Amino acid sequence: MPENRTSQPRLDPRKPLVLDTRELGRRPGSMRPLKIQVVAPAGLGVGLIGVPEGAPLDLDLRLESVLEGVLVSGTAAAPVVGECGRCLESFDSTVEVDVQELFAYPASVTDLTSDDDEVSRLRGDLIDLEPIMRDAVVLALPTNPVCREDCPGLCPECGAHWDDLPGDHTHDQVDPRWAALQNLVQEPPVVADGEQPPPAAESQEK
Ligand SMILES: [Zn+2]
Ligand SMILES: [Zn+2]
């Protein structure tokens, strides 16, 4: 991608998932553990489930200086709020993801031989974990969230939760043995449309 790297927007160090690697130094082999709680940004989720914006996001990471850049690895954990795909009730859960990402130094071999969307980059001393975190969390979340594995969902006729309905809840389900009789009773009278009864018969009945 022919791109002028100097035009890259600077990272905002106040953003919760922008981390400063200055203390780490750039000596390959140096390592710094980083165990912090940050505020979850918007967009950590998909469809009916996700980490609420502002929720506590626990990072348990290791920043390692390697030849090509800074290697970030560890885990991230956060609360999750979802909507059950079967009963539509909201439910609470948690998500924990593994993170491993290389942030390449400017002008390193990796920097010069890969695109920005392939390998993350350091911007000055800063790295932005937000895109990595978003991808990892979205991947870890279920595509069809349910409040519990055996959630029975809703009655398709009345929309009530099966948990709240008696076991024999039905809607006009006719016993097949009676259905045949019911058809006999409901058989329409054999009178052709528009046919009038003979006037003689009517006068006789009166
Ligand atoms: Zn449910
Ligand atoms: Zn029902």
Can you summarize this structure?
The protein is an alpha+beta fold and 206 residues long.
Q: Could you explain the architecture of this structure?
A:
- With 206 residues, the protein is an alpha+beta fold.
- The protein has two domains: 5-140, no CATH class; 176-205, no CATH class.
- The protein is 16% helix and 30% strand.
- The protein has four helices and nine strands; from the N terminus they run βββββββαββααα.
- The chain has helices at residues 109-113, 130-140, 176-185, 199-205, and strands at 18-20, 31-39, 45-46, 49-50, 56-66, 69-83, 90-104, 120-121, 126-128.
- The strands form two sheets. Strands 2, 3, 4, 5, 6, 7 and 8 form a seven-stranded mixed beta sheet that branches.
- It is elongated, with a radius of gyration of 33 Å.
- The protein binds zinc ion (2 copies).
- One zinc ion binds next to loops.
